[in-house]
């Protein structure tokens, strides 16, 4: 079906589905209205308005793979707080850890008795030998970049066009007409981010080699599969080239596994044998509690010790925040690593994701749409392109805000919450087979409506 026709159908659907959403949520509408007196834009975090709904649904309860809004609508959640709740809302071992941590003190700026076990678990699970904690993945990326600059003595950073690594100034750039420029819409950005950051297309080995040639780049910061611009898989051999070229240029490789931790136990790096110098994870690593981790090789750790000694060791390093490494974080990390983020959890997630992938592909074919389904483990993305996209330019060309909004709203009205900003389905171990099948059936209904075809049963 032609894109223009599809967009026209999508606009009509949005109109109808918006009314359905409104009619079912008088309490959410009123609660949102009430909150405008206290919050900027009526929400505690401005991007809570970036859903394709006329106002946000207000959540009463979230547990496992389900949300209930304050109007009593039950919704199967495959957004999962955009990965923060990847292992399901409120996993029992994390809730237990929270309860116990509360009685033992939440934060002391001293290690708790969980520290040794957590350190050991991080090394075993993710491979790198030395770790530190932060509160968010944004923080962890900032700290890891700082370390990369400290140990290489270089200022510049390389990222891939279309990346998102959190609220980290150095990474908030776009590649426009071959130039790296500060991302449009950044608030209060007073310096030209293109001065110290180079952005190149993902999967472009020649551009990478050229950018690294001057040997002035401290680190390449990359997601192993780009998940924030549609979903862009690495081309065969790209990771091997990335590692070879960074090593040859004396540039460190910082892998951000915050989303690709969906791949399997140990994340994409462990499953696919990458060899990062630095690694970052946040979001679901503490089962939904604000904690992030960043790890480094022994060589970086040794070099950092020398630098710290030369600088006399103490004072403000620019790394760390007061609540990082707290007893609360350690307790939740331990519970999550030991009891939630397990081989068995990933097995269930993969099995459900297999089912959903097959079902979505069949629905797309039945509707006669030229879309693909990209996937990294438990994370699936519907891409409006007949072939997998190779870089951000292709991903942007394939995207359509209108079709995306129609898909999201229609799915939500059928009881399934997709992730905003893209067409992402994340599978938690709490998602039942029945819920996965329901999701597929809803998707078949919506794609059928969009394409004006009756989907195959
Ligand atoms: C790959 C990646 N890294 C880091 C972050 C930042 O996470 P947070 O917002 O929790 O700091 C995000 C957020 O979406 C992300 O997608």
Walk me through what this model shows:
It is a single chain. With 457 residues, this protein is of the alpha/beta class. The chain is 41% helix and 15% strand. It has helices at 3-23, 26-35, 92-104, 115-126, 137-152, 205-212, 238-249, 267-272, 298-310, 327-340, 343-367, 392-398, 401-413, 433-450, and strands at 59-63, 66-69, 74-77, 130-134, 156-160, 173-176, 179-182, 197-200, 217-222, 252-256, 278-281, 292-296, 372-376, 379-383, 416-417, 424-426. Helix 8 links the parallel strand 10 and strand 11. The protein starts with a helix and ends in a 7-residue tail after the last helix. The relative contact order is 0.17. Bound molecules: pyridoxal-5'-phosphate. Pyridoxal-5'-phosphate binds at residues 136-138, 141, 164-166, 223, 228, 256, 258-259, 282-283.
């Amino acid at each position: 079906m032609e894109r223009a026709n599809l967009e026209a159908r999508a606009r009509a659907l949005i109109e109808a589905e918006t009314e359905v959403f409104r009619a079912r949520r008088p309490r959410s509408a009123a609660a949102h209205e009430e909150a405008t007196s206290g919050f900027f834009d009526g929400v505690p975090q401005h991007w809570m308005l970036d859903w394709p709904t006329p106002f946000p649904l207000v959540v009463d309860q979230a547990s496992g793979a389900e949300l209930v809004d304050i109007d009593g609508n039950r919704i199967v959640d495959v957004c999962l707080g955009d990965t923060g709740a990847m292992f399901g809302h409120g996993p029992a071992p994390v809730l237990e850890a929270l309860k116990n941590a509360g009685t033992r003190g939440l934060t002391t700026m001293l290690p708790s008795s969980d520290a040794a076990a957590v350190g050991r678990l991080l090394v075993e699970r993710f491979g790198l030998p030395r770790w530190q904690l932060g509160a968010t993945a944004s923080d962890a990326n900032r700290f890891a970049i700082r370390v990369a600059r400290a140990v290489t003595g270089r200022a510049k950073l390389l990222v891939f066009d279309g990346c998102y690594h959190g609220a980290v100034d150095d990474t908030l750039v776009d590649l426009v007409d071959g130039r790296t420029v500060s991302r449009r819409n950044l608030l209060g950005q007073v310096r030209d981010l293109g001065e110290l950051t180079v952005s190149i297309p993902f999967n472009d080995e020649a551009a990478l080699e050229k950018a690294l040639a001057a040997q002035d780049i401290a680190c390449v910061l990359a997601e192993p599969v780009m998940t924030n611009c549609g979903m862009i898989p690495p081309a065969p051999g790209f990771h091997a080239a990335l590692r070879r070229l960074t090593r040859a240029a004396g540039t460190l490789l910082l892998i951000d596994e915050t989303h690709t931790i969906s791949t399997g136990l140990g994340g994409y790096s462990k499953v696919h044998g990458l060899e990062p110098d630095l690694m970052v994870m946040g979001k679901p690593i503490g089962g939904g509690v604000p904690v992030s981790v960043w790890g480094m090789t022994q060589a970086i750790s040794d070099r950092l010790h020398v630098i710290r000694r030369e600088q006399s060791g103490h004072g403000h390093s620019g790394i760390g925040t007061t609540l990082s490494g707290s007893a609360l974080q350690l307790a939740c990390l331990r519970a999550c690593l030991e009891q939630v983020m397990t081989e068995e959890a990933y097995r269930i997630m993969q099995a459900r994701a297999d089912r959903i992938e097959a079902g979505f592909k069949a629905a797309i074919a039945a509707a006669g749409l030229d879309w693909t389904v990209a996937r990294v483990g438990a994370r699936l993305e519907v891409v409006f392109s007949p072939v997998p996209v190779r870089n951000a330019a292709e991903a942007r060309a394939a995207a359509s805000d209108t079709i995306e909004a129609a898909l999201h709203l229609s799915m939500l009205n059928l009881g399934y919450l997709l992730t905003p900003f893209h067409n992402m389905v994340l599978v938690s171990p709490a998602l039942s087979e029945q819920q996965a099948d329901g999701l597929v059936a809803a998707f078949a209904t919506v794609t059928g409506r969009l394409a004006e075809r009756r989907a195959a049963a």
